[in-house]
Amino acid sequence: MARLAMVVMLIFLVITMPLAQTQEDGSDQVSWANRNDNGKETVTNLQFYFHDTLSGKNPSAVRVAQANQTNTSPTGFGVLMMVDDPLTVAPDPNSKLVGRARGFYGSAGQTELALIMVMNFGFTGGIYNGSSFTIATLNPALNPVRELSIVGGTGIFRLARGYVIARTYSLDPTTGNAIVGYNATLVTFI
Asked: Max alpha carbon distance in the chain (Å)?
């Protein structure tokens, strides 16, 4: 169990760049979305946090499968976690909810921590309500900064391509609970 907690801790060495942006009026406010439409393609930048909770009464990430050797593997090779994580505008769990990350991640590396991640990031507010994008990517979890691939989307993000720059905001080594930030850049065509 201690190895699983360690693997989960290493899984979420992911965070975005700081979310605070200075507005045109000079005030500092958290802005989680920005769109630039040039008439041919639209570039959207989203900055948000997801809260991956493995402990407590209502965890948002649960182990659904593992290989026989997972418990003896230094990387947790073969473990598969299913997630339904809330997405917020700031690392505070009580900050504004903007959507949910749903999908799975699993340890795919035998000698180094390498996670396969397939997740859908669905949004619930404003012009993004009902839209989503999907990542399907290898996450080299020990790298301090990682680039994850965006492979598609729905709604306003239909035919999206792009990437996520990710880093960990916080990680509890005892529970494996993590708050993870993403800075996503999506390109869609008109």
From this structure: 58
pLDDT in tens, 62-93: 999 999 999 999 999 999 999 999 999 999 99
User: In sequence order, what are the beta bridge partners of 146?
Assistant: 166
For residues 36 and 43, what is the distance between their CA atoms, to the nearest angstrom?
5
What is the rounded average pLDDT for all residues in the chain? 84
**79 near 7, Cβ under 8 Å?**
yes
Number of neighbouring beta carbons within 10 Å of residue 95: 17
DSSP 3-state assignment of 73? coil
Q: Which residues are CB-neighbours of 36 under 8 A, at least 6 positions away? A: 42, 43, 44
What is the band of 30 on the pLDDT scale with cuts at 50, 70, 90? low
Exposure string over 27-42, b if 16+ CB within 10 A, otherwise e: eeebebbeeeeeeeeb
Are 134 and 122 in contact by the 8 Å Cβ rule? The answer is no
Structural domains in the chain plus CATH codes: 2-15+29-189 (2.40.480)
Closest by CA to 163, choosing from 135, 143, 131, is 135
Q: pTM, whole model, 2 decimals?
A: 0.79
Cβ contact 10:146 at 8 Å:
no
